[in-house]
C-alpha cells in the first residue's frame, strides 16, 4: 500500500509518498519536474489546463488564471471549489502519466490537508471534491495534525527532544493561514487556534507587490493593469513571493553584499516596467505596516496576538519546545516573536519546512492504517469469549471477597435483630424467623451501605482480571508498536470507572432474588439454632459454662430418645413450628450464665415498709413506699428460679458458630456444579461485567492516536 500526502497550499503545493512496508521515510514526489508546485491554475485559449510553473509562465497569455484560490473555499459563492478541482485533477493526471501513481484504491490512499479552523461541514465538502476526480480513498486531515505527526516521526526532532515526555507547540505558517498544534506527551490537545485567521505568507506577498507598485513612477498605470488583468496580478505576485523567499534565505552578510531585486516587463497595453526590491526597510514594512487584509493590523500584531491567545489557552503546562514549519518560518523575526511570547521554550525550525505538511500527511496515512488494523485486532479480542472466560473463571474469588467484607455488618444489622426478637418472644416460631431473616437480609443487601462496602473488593477483583487481560492486549500493542500502557485498563482503576456499582448490587454477589445466596444465610442460621436446641451430632452446648453443659447433656439424651420415636426430620419440623418457652430460647442464645433467684413471698417488702416508717415521718414514709404499680410488678414465687438477665445480647460463641456455618455452606455452594440458580447468576454476571470491561477496552483503543 502506498500512502500519499497532498499538501495543497494556497501558495505552493507538495506531494509525499510512503510505503506500508518497513519504516521508510516519506519521499517527495515531483510533478511536472518540480518538487514544489506553485498553486497556480490557468486555462489557455485551446482549453488546456495548466498548473504550477507552466501556468505561471503562461499567465499573460492565458484566457484565465488564478492563484491563492484555496483561501476563498469557505466562501460558498466563490469559484474556489472548481479551481481546486481542476488543479488537483491535473496533478492526478500528471502522476498517472509519469507512472508515479499506479493502481487504484487497493494499493493507494491519499491524505489531503486542510486548515485546522475548517469545521466538519467544510471538510466534508472539501473531501467530495477529491472523490469526484477519482483520488484513491481520499481523507481530509488538518494540516496542524499532519505537522504534529511529522514532528513526532521525524528523526531529527526525536534526536532533539523526546516528544513522548515533553510538551510541544507546532506552528505551521502557510500562505494563507497559521495553524497551531499543541502536543502533550505525544498526544494532541485541543487549543484555540489561529488557523481561522487570514494570516500567512501570502499577505506579505501582496504587501510587497503593493509597496513596489507605489514606489514606481508608473504606479497609476501599473495599478490599472493589476486591477483589470487577473493573469498579470498572479504573475506579479508570484515574482514578489520568489523575491521575498530569496531574501529571507540569505544570510546577513549576503544581504549586505548583494542587492535582492528584480525587474518585470508587463505587456498588457503599453509596455511597463515593475521594479521589485527587498531590503531591510521593505522587510520591516512587510511585518509592521497595517494592511486591509488584516483589518488594519500588521502581520506582527496579528501573529503575536495569536501566540498570546494560544499561550493563555494552554494554561500552566507551557510548551518546552516550539516547532516552526512553513516557508515563512525561515524569517528570523518569527523566531524573535516566538521567543518573546514563550521565553522559556526551545525553538526548532524544520530543515525543509515546505515539505513538513506533505510528509506528515503521508505518515498519517500509514499510521491510520496501522491503527485501523490495531483497532480491528482489539475488536476481534472483544468479540471472542476471552474477556467473558476470564471474568467467569474469577467470579468465585469475587464472591468470597464480597463475603469477607459484608458478613460481619450483615450479621450485626440484619441477623442479630431477628435473633433478639425470637429470643425475647417477639417472633413466636422458627419458621416465622425464617421469613423475617429473609426480609432483613434483603433490606440490608439493597442498602447504600452494602453498595459502598462492595467498592473495594470489586475494585481489587477488577484489577486482578485486568492484569490477566493485559497479557492479551500487550501482545496487540507490541504488534503495532503502540505503547503497552495504552491499553492498561488496570492503571488507576476503580470500580466506578466501569460503572459496575451502578448495576452491581450486593444482592448479586451475596444474594439475588432466588434461593441462591439468601438460602445459604437463612438455612445456616436456622440449622445452627436447631442444632443448639436438639443436640445435633454429639453434645451441643446450649449455654456456656458447667450449667449449660449439664443442661445440654440432659437435653441431648431426651432428644435422642424422642428421635428414635419420631425420627430426626419430624423433630426438626416440630421445632420449626413450636412456640418454645422463653427459657429455652434464652438458654440457646444468652451471652451470660443464668442467675438463681431466691423464693419471693413478699415478706421482705413488708419488713422494709415498717423499718422505713420508723425512720421517717408519716408523710415521708408514704412517699418512700412503693406505688401500687411497682408493688404489683414484683411477682411472688415459692421456689428458686433461673434469671437470664437482659434480653438484648447474644452469645459471641453463638454468633461465631453462625459465621462458621455460613462460610461452610457458602463454600459448598460455590463448589457445586449443578445449582441452576448459581449457574444462571454466574452467566448474567459474566456477561454484564465482561461487557463493561470490553466497552472500556474499546474506548482506550479509540483514544490511541499516534504510535510513538
Termini distance?
21 Å
Overall body shape: elongated
Strand content: 5-15%
Secondary structure: number of strands: 18
Derived from helix and strand composition plus strand pairing, the structural class reads alpha+beta
The structural domain count equals 4
> How large is the count of helical segments?
28
**Residue runs with pLDDT of under 50 for 5 or more positions:** 497-503, 511-516, 535-568, 607-633
Largest sheet: 6 strands, mixed
| Average pLDDT score | 76
Task: Give the % helix.
Answer: 55-70%
**Rg (C-alpha, Å):** 44 Å
Please characterize this protein's 3D structure.
The structure is a single chain. With 708 residues, this protein is of the alpha+beta class. It folds into four domains: 1-154, 2-Layer Sandwich (Nucleotidyltransferase, domain 5); 155-349, Nucleotidyltransferase, domain 5 (2-Layer Sandwich), CATH 3.30.420.40; 384-526 and 572-578 and 648-703, no CATH class; 599-639. Helices cover 56% and strands 13% of the residues. The strands form five sheets. Strands 1, 2, 3, 4, 8 and 9 form a six-stranded mixed β-sheet that branches. Strand 2 and strand 3 (27-28) form a beta hairpin. The longest helix is centred in the middle third of the chain and has 32 residues, at 448-479. The radius of gyration is 44 Å and the shape is elongated. The two termini are 21 Å apart. The relative contact order is 0.08. Residues 497-503, 511-516, 535-568 and 607-633 have low confidence and may be disordered.
Amino acid at each position: 500500500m502506498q500512502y500519499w500526502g497532498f499538501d495543497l497550499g494556497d501558495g505552493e503545493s507538495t506531494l509525499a509518498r510512503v510505503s506500508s512496508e518497513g519504516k521508510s521515510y516519506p519521499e517527495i514526489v515531483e510533478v511536472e519536474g518540480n518538487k514544489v508546485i506553485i498553486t497556480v491554475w490557468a486555462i489557455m485559449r485551446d482549453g488546456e489546463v495548466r498548473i504550477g510553473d507552466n501556468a505561471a509562465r503562461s499567465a499573460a497569455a492565458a484566457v484565465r488564471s488564478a492563484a491563492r484560490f484555496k483561501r476563498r473555499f469557505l466562501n460558498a459563492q466563490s469559484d474556489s471549489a472548481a479551481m481546486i478541482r481542476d488543479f488537483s485533477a491535473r496533478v492526478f493526471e500528471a502522476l498517472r502519466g509519469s507512472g508515479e501513481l499506479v493502481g487504484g484504491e487497493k494499493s493507494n490512499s491519499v491524505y489531503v490537508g486542510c486548515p485546522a479552523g475548517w469545521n466538519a461541514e467544510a471538510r466534508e465538502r472539501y473531501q467530495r471534491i477529491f472523490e469526484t476526480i477519482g483520488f484513491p480513498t481520499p481523507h481530509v486531515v488538518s494540516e496542524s495534525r499532519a505537522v504534529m505527526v511529522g514532528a513526532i516521526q521525524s528523526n531529527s526532532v526525536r534526536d532533539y527532544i523526546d516528544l513522548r515526555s515533553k510538551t510541544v507547540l507546532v506552528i505551521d505558517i502557510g500562505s494563507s493561514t497559521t495553524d497551531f498544534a499543541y502536543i502533550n506527551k505525544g498526544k494532541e490537545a485541543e487549543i484555540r487556534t489561529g488557523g481561522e485567521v487570514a494570516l500567512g505568507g501570502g499577505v506579505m506577498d501582496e504587501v510587497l507587490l503593493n509597496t513596489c507598485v507605489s514606489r514606481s513612477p508608473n504606479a497609476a498605470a501599473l495599478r490599472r493593469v493589476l486591477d483589470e488583468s487577473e493573469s498579470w496580478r498572479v504573475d506579479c505576485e508570484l515574482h514578489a513571493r520568489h523575491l521575498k523567499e530569496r531574501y529571507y534565505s540569505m544570510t546577513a552578510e549576503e544581504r549586505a553584499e548583494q542587492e535582492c531585486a528584480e525587474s518585470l516587463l508587463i505587456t498588457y497595453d503599453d509596455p511597463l516596467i515593475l521594479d521589485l526590491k527587498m531590503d531591510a526597510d521593505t522587510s520591516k514594512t512587510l511585518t509592521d505596516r497595517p494592511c486591509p487584509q488584516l483589518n488594519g493590523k500588521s502581520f506582527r500584531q496579528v501573529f503575536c496576538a495569536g501566540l498570546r491567545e494560544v499561550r493563555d489557552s494552554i494554561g500552566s503546562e507551557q510548551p518546552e519546545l516550539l516547532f516552526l514549519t512553513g516557508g515563512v518560518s525561515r524569517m528570523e523575526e518569527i523566531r524573535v516573536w516566538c521567543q518573546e511570547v514563550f521565553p522559556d521554550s526551545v525553538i526548532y525550525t524544520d530543515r525543509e519546512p515546505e515539505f513538513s505538511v506533505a510528509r506528515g500527511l503521508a505518515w498519517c496515512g500509514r499510521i491510520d492504517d496501522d491503527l485501523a488494523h490495531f483497532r480491528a485486532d482489539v475488536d476481534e479480542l472483544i468479540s471472542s469469549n476471552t474477556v467473558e472466560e476470564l471474568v467467569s473463571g474469577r467470579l468465585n474469588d469475587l464472591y468470597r471477597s464480597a463475603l469477607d467484607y459484608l458478613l460481619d455488618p450483615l450479621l450485626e444489622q440484619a441477623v442479630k435483630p431477628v435473633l433478639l426478637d425470637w429470643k425475647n418472644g417477639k417472633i413466636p416460631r422458627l419458621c416465622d424467623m425464617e421469613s423475617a431473616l429473609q426480609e432483613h437480609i434483603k433490606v440490608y443487601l439493597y442498602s447504600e451501605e452494602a453498595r459502598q462496602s462492595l467498592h473495594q473488593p470489586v475494585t481489587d477483583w477488577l484489577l486482578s482480571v485486568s492484569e490477566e487481560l493485559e497479557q492479551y492486549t500487550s501482545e496487540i500493542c507490541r504488534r503495532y508498536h503502540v505503547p503497552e500502557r495504552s491499553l492498561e485498563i488496570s492503571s488507576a482503576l476503580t470500580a466506578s470507572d466501569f460503572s459496575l456499582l451502578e448495576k452491581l448490587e450486593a444482592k448479586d454477589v451475596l444474594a439475588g432474588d432466588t434461593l441462591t445466596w439468601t438460602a445459604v444465610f437463612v438455612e445456616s442460621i436456622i440449622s445452627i439454632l436447631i442444632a443448639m436446641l436438639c443436640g445435633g451430632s454429639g453434645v451441643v452446648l446450649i449455654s456456656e459454662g458447667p450449667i449449660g453443659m449439664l443442661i445440654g447433656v440432659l437435653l441431648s439424651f431426651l432428644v435422642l430418645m424422642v428421635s428414635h420415636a419420631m425420627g430426626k426430620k419430624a423433630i426438626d419440623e416440630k421445632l420449626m413450628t413450636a412456640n418454645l418457652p422463653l427459657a429455652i430460647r434464652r438458654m440457646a442464645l444468652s451471652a451470660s450464665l443464668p442467675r438463681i433467684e431466691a423464693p419471693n413471698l413478699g415478706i421482705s417488702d413488708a419488713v422494709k415498709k415498717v423499718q422505713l416508717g420508723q425512720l421517717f415521718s408519716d408523710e415521708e414514709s408514704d412517699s418512700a413506699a412503693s406505688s401500687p404499680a411497682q408493688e404489683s410488678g414484683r411477682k411472688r414465687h415459692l421456689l428458686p428460679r433461673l434469671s437470664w438477665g437482659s434480653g438484648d445480647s447474644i452469645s459471641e460463641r453463638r454468633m461465631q458458630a453462625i459465621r462458621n456455618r455460613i462460610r461452610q455452606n457458602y463454600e459448598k455452594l460455590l463448589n457445586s456444579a449443578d445449582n441452576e440458580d448459581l449457574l444462571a447468576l454466574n452467566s448474567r454476571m459474566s456477561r454484564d461485567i465482561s461487557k463493561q470491561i470490553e466497552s472500556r477496552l474499546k474506548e482506550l483503543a479509540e483514544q490511541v492516536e499516534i504510535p510513538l
